[in-house]
């Protein structure tokens, strides 16, 4: 109670409970099998709930869990039993929205895996060793995405030239990714404009 | 840098399982990692490989020591690249690999260069990485930069340094403590999160300095905190200061205004933090609670589940200590019973069950019934437990609550859930006499269709104890005998035992029981047949006129008054020989007495297994023990046995405690002695009692203990005569007298010659409380009104200065030795007055009810108004006498 709010872990699972990306800050789960068991139990407990419009919450094995689902992705943030639930949900919302911004609104498992680097950087920017670093989605996404841009500027305020620079990166990246992505792509600037 | 939008094509389904990491293999990726060593680095390619490595780690793959070192060295090469995206991945990768100390040196210079870079992102991340992997020695080298970073104008850099400080404080506190000036400055930062991190670090640096924390809180509560997170921290620190300031004075609590002010903050997280802090204040008053409850009530109807959950969870906790404060929220709470989120619904129900009054129980039960069918077992158990305590609180409602329990007992459910229900019914049967018969029938119906052997046997055992004592025992026979036909061997054997118990205790049923038992003689299970044969023989069912002694019957059907652990030990030590095992040789150590506290609220009743070992049997055990001693056999009915009183210090040579047994005209002291010296055997142990300070008592008999070997407790008794029916009191001094014999530890044989010796014990008192039985009433007000004011005696007493109100209340309860009712023995913190309700039975079987009203008179003086009602004026007077002379 007297200490700083603490996040125990982030889980981003798919619709079958498999890991997309996870990050543990607490050593309550020492082994990978303990982690997997926890994820599995948590997933089956929450799977049937509807956490698509509003973030949901559950008590589970002396943890407070807040979670939100979109498409085939399940976002979880786990905190201690005595934690302020609203702080946890603020972190969840920051994570959720930042991922939405980074994936340009196209949030699903496939997109998340293809941009796993962004997701991992995103987690890295939200929490450091359990301590909350940032909860504002724009700031988080800004720090992750705009490498050459002022870190605090939100995506929506990028200048045209920055947007073009990003678009160029798309091009390069997509060409590189062609070996895995046999999908027709469209480098449309509309998508950029609408995503902020 | 993100992927271009993928149009949702029709053929998308085909790719549903597509993953860029499909078929990924550690070995191959490690091969790929060689690109890190290329003289011409390809940043994109390298980024992808790092992502793959991180993916593997994330999926739980581990690298061997060699692999990790190789990857680490390769990754360090990437510092040559100027690509910012790649650098970010390198930072994450290094943190994931958590390199060893000698590896850290390789990257130190690169990271230190980044730490002083012009690019904010480099500075912030390099600080975080370096602080994560560094050890104390390196820290002193970079300390200067870190101090600068804390006050860096870029908030991301400052936060990075502060958060690193929070982590480093655990390992290198002396270094981090040197930064407090900079941290102090950062607390004033305009950037919200910098303020949050700085406040967290500053508090951790100073947490052991109460004065400093106090100063920090007082200056910040004046209002310079901008970030909601920092405000939450401040609320936590403030309540810590309030808690430690130990302000016993009534009146305004310091900083309460700040907490209340936070209830009007614009961020919900702050409002909630403050509301929660207020509810958790020590000895919070209703006036202080009200504003917090009001905001929580608003949250109850929020559209956000998290807000509703947070509010209902907090209110649920408040309801445990201040049920009345939460009743305002009952309407909102009732609408939450149908909440989609089952955690919220369960919390709402259990809160309602705590705050509900007698009249709302029925309505509540109707709502809960609809709700029970669609929640998980774990929630159901919580509800069942809440209902059990509700029923104990409102015994008059036992009918509807018992019905509810039996209904849910019939529905589907797992073992733990069913056990919780059965336990609850058993406890209600024990504690509410009116509920007994219906409760037993519900249990009978349940075993008709019970899939859990454990529960069936437990219920059958319980039926065997309680069933014969009911008005019409015969109606249970059918249910029990059905088990013999339809169940597995374990349950059948239990049913046979239960049948026999009915036969033994109800003479009119005996012939019919014999018929049933004889049918069991052909059972295909040995145990069932054996039991049936045994019981038929002992009960005389085989036609022969059996003169089995009462003791055999008692042994088979009576409650076993020997601690099972002792019995088990004795049986283990028993060697088969000519001499048969003698149950009376089992020590009856009475050290761990669960004395008559069965109604003490807050104590969890032990449930099904408990009845035979439960409190009533303790009294029975004493009674039986005393009556087995011829000298005491004509003393009449045992009125009360006290809890054991220690007469020796802990860990002395001989440990002695005494139990006072009160009879109408006699008092028997039972001295439980334990010899703790392995080299000694005590013989002919007696206690010499000097009753010169107890004029009304005259010694009539004593029963010495023949022998007291090492670590095997034994009892010696002394009996006194006293004037019949009066509460004679007095002081007794005790001396243990015995003959000591040396024992050879190797052979365990004692020498023939002994020496007489004495051992001084502490004094023992017979007090007024010994003449009052703790007997609770289920509804104090009813009992009080039924008793009428005919023999009421009211008077006021000044109790003088007392440590606290609670201490005064407990002192009076102890003095009177009566049972506190309805939880009124608990005095809320900081309250200025308190009413305590007591009930008991006075010697001569006179019911007594007492209403104590306490009030603080001045700062410490306690005044008390004592109202006594009983069936006999003289008894009411006697109670006043006790208080007046106490």
UniProtKB/TrEMBL annotation, chain A:
It is found in: Cytoplasm; Golgi apparatus membrane; Cytoplasmic vesicle, COPI-coated vesicle membrane. It is a peripheral membrane protein. Residues 7-146 form the AP complex mu/sigma subunit domain. InterPro entries: AP_mu_sigma_su, Coatomer_zeta, Longin-like_dom_sf. Keywords: Cytoplasm, Cytoplasmic vesicle, ER-Golgi transport, Golgi apparatus, Membrane, Protein transport, Transport. It comes from the Eukaryota. The zeta subunit may be involved in regulating the coat assembly and, hence, the rate of biosynthetic protein transport due to its association-dissociation properties with the coatomer complex. Belongs to the adaptor complexes small subunit family. This is Coatomer subunit zeta. It comes from Hibiscus sabdariffa (roselle).
Automatic annotation (TrEMBL), chain B:
Its main location: cytoplasm. It is found in: Cytoplasm; Golgi apparatus membrane; Cytoplasmic vesicle, COPI-coated vesicle membrane. Keywords: Cytoplasm, Cytoplasmic vesicle, ER-Golgi transport, Golgi apparatus, Membrane, Protein transport, Repeat, Transport. The coatomer is a cytosolic protein complex that binds to dilysine motifs and reversibly associates with Golgi non-clathrin-coated vesicles, which further mediate biosynthetic protein transport from the ER, via the Golgi up to the trans Golgi network. Coatomer complex is required for budding from Golgi membranes, and is essential for the retrograde Golgi-to-ER transport of dilysine-tagged proteins. Oligomeric complex. It is a peripheral membrane protein. Residues 621-766 form the Coatomer gamma subunit appendage Ig-like subdomain domain. The keyword Membrane applies. Residues 27-539 form the Clathrin/coatomer adaptor adaptin-like N-terminal domain. Residues 769-883 form the Coatomer subunit gamma C-terminal domain. Residues 594-615 are annotated as: Disordered. Belongs to the COPG family. It holds the Pfam family COP-gamma_platf. This is Coatomer subunit gamma. InterPro entries: ARM-like, ARM-type_fold, Clathrin/coatomer_adapt-like_N, Clathrin_app_Ig-like_sf, Coatomer/calthrin_app_sub_C, Coatomer_g_Cpla, Coatomer_gsu, Coatomer_gsu_app_Ig-like_dom. The keyword Transferase does not apply.
């Amino acid at each position: 109670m007297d200490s700083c709010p603490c996040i125990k872990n982030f889980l981003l699972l798919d619709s079958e409970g498999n890991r997309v990306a996870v990050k543990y800050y607490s050593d309550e789960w020492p082994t990978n099998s303990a982690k997997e068991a926890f994820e599995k139990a948590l997933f089956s407990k929450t799977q049937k709930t509807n956490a698509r419009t509003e973030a949901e919450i559950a008590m589970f094995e002396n943890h407070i869990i807040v979670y939100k689902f979109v498409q085939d992705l399940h976002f979880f943030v786990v905190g201690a039993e005595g934690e302020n639930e609203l702080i946890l949900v603020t972190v969840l919302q920051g994570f959720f929205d930042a991922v939405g911004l980074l994936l340009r609104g196209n949030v699903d498992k496939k997109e998340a895996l293809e941009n796993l680097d962004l997701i991992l950087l995103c987690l890295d920017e939200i929490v450091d060793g359990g301590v909350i670093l940032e909860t504002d989605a724009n700031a988080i996404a800004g720090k992750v995405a705009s490498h050459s841009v002022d870190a605090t500027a939100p995506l929506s305020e990028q200048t045209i030239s920055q947007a073009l620079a990003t678009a160029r990166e798309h091009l390069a990246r997509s060409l590189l990714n062609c070996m895995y992505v046999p999908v027709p792509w469209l480098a449309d600037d509309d998508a950029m404009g609408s995503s902020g | 840098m993100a992927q271009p939008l993928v149009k949702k094509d029709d053929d998308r389904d085909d790719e549903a399982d597509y993953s860029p990491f499909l078929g990924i293999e550690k070995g191959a990726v490690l091969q790929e990692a060689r690109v890190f060593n290329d003289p011409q680095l390809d940043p994109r390619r390298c980024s992808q490989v790092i992502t793959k490595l991180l993916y593997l780690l994330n999926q739980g793959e581990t690298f061997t020591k060699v692999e990790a070192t190789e990857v680490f060295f390769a990754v360090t090469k990437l510092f040559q690249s100027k690509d910012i995206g790649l650098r970010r991945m390198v930072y994450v990768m290094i943190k994931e690999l958590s390199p060893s100390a000698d590896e850290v040196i390789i990257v130190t210079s690169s990271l230190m260069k980044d730490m002083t870079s012009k690019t904010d992102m480099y500075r912030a991340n390099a600080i975080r990485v370096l602080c994560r992997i560094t050890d104390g020695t390196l820290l002193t080298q970079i300390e200067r930069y870190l101090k600068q970073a804390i006050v860096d104008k870029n908030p991301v850099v400052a936060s990075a340094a502060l958060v690193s400080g929070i982590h480093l404080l655990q390992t290198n506190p002396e270094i981090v403590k040197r930064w407090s000036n900079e941290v102090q400055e950062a607390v004033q930062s305009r950037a919200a999160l910098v303020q949050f991190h700085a406040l967290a670090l500053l508090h951790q640096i100073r947490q052991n300095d109460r004065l400093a924390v106090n100063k920090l809180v007082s200056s910040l509560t004046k209002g310079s905190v901008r970030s909601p997170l920092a405000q939450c921290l401040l609320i936590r620190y403030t309540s810590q200061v309030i808690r430690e300031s130990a302000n016993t004075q009534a009146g305004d609590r310091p900083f309460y205004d700040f907490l209340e002010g936070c209830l009007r903050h614009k961020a919900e997280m702050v409002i909630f933090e403050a509301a929660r802090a207020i509810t958790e204040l020590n000895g919070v008053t209703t006036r202080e609670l009200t504003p917090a409850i009001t905001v929580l009530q608003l949250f109850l109807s929020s559209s956000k589940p998290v807000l509703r959950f947070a509010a209902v969870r907090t209110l649920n906790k408040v309801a445990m200590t201040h049920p009345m404060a939460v009743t305002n929220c009952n309407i909102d709470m009732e609408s939450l019973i149908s909440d989609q989120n089952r955690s919220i619904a369960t919390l709402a129900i259990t809160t309602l069950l705590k705050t509900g009054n007698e009249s709302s129980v029925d309505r509540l039960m109707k709502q809960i019934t609809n709700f029970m069918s669609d929640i998980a077992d774990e929630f159901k158990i919580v509800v069942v437990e809440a209902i059990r305590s509700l029923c104990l609180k409102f015994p008059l409602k036992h009918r509807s609550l018992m019905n509810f329990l039996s209904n849910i007992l019939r529905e589907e459910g797992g073992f733990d859930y069913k056990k919780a229900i059965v336990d609850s019914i058993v406890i209600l049967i024990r504690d509410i006499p009116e509920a007994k018969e219906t409760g037993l029938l519900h249990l009978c119906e349940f075993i008709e269709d019970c899939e859990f052997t454990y529960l069936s046997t437990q219920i059958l055992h319980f039926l065997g104890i309680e069933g014969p004592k009911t008005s019409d025992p015969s109606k249970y026979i059918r249910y029990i005998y059905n088990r013999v036909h339809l169940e597995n061997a374990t349950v059948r054997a239990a049913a046979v035992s239960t049948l026999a118990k009915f036969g033994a205790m109800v003479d009119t049923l005996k012939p019919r029981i014999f018929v049933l038992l004889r049918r069991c003689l052909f059972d295909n299970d040995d145990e069932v047949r054996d039991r049936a044969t045994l019981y038929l023989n002992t009960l005389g069912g085989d036609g022969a006129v059996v003169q089995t002694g009462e003791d055999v019957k008692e042994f088979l059907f009576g409650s076993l008054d020997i601690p099972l652990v002792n019995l088990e030990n004795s049986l283990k030590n028993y060697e088969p020989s000519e001499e048969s095992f003698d149950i009376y040789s089992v020590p009856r150590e009475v050290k761990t007495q669960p004395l008559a506290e069965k109604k003490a609220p807050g104590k969890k009743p032990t449930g099904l297994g408990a009845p035979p070992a439960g409190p009533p049997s303790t009294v029975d055990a004493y009674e039986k023990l005393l009556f087995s001693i011829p000298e005491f056999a004509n003393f009449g009915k045992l009125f009360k046995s006290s809890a054991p009183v220690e007469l020796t210090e802990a860990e002395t040579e001989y440990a002695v405690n005494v139990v006072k047994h009160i009879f109408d005209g006699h008092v028997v002291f039972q001295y439980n002695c334990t010899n703790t010296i392995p080299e000694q055997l005590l013989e002919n142990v007696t206690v010499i009692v000097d009753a010169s300070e107890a004029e009304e008592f005259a010694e009539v008999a004593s029963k010495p203990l023949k022998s007291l070997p090492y670590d095997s407790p034994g009892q010696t008794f002394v009996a006194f005569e006293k004037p019949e029916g009066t509460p004679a009191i007095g002081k007794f001094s005790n001396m243990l007298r015995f003959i000591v014999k040396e024992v050879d530890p190797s052979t365990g044989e004692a020498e023939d010659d002994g020496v007489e010796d004495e051992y001084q014990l502490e004094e023992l008192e017979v007090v007024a409380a010994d003449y009052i039985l703790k007997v609770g009433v289920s509804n104090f007000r009813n009992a009080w009104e039924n008793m009428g004011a005919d023999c009421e005696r009211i008077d006021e007493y000044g109790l003088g200065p007392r440590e606290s109100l609670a201490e005064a209340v407990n002192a009076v309860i102890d003095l009177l030795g009566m049972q506190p009712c309805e939880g009124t023995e608990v005095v809320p913190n900081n309250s200025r007055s308190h009413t305590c309700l007591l009930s008991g039975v006075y010697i001569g079987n006179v019911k007594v009810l007492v209403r104590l009203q306490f009030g603080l008179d001045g700062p410490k003086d306690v005044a008390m108004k004592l109202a006594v009602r009983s069936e006999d004026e003289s008894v009411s007077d006697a109670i006043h006498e006790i208080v007046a002379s106490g």
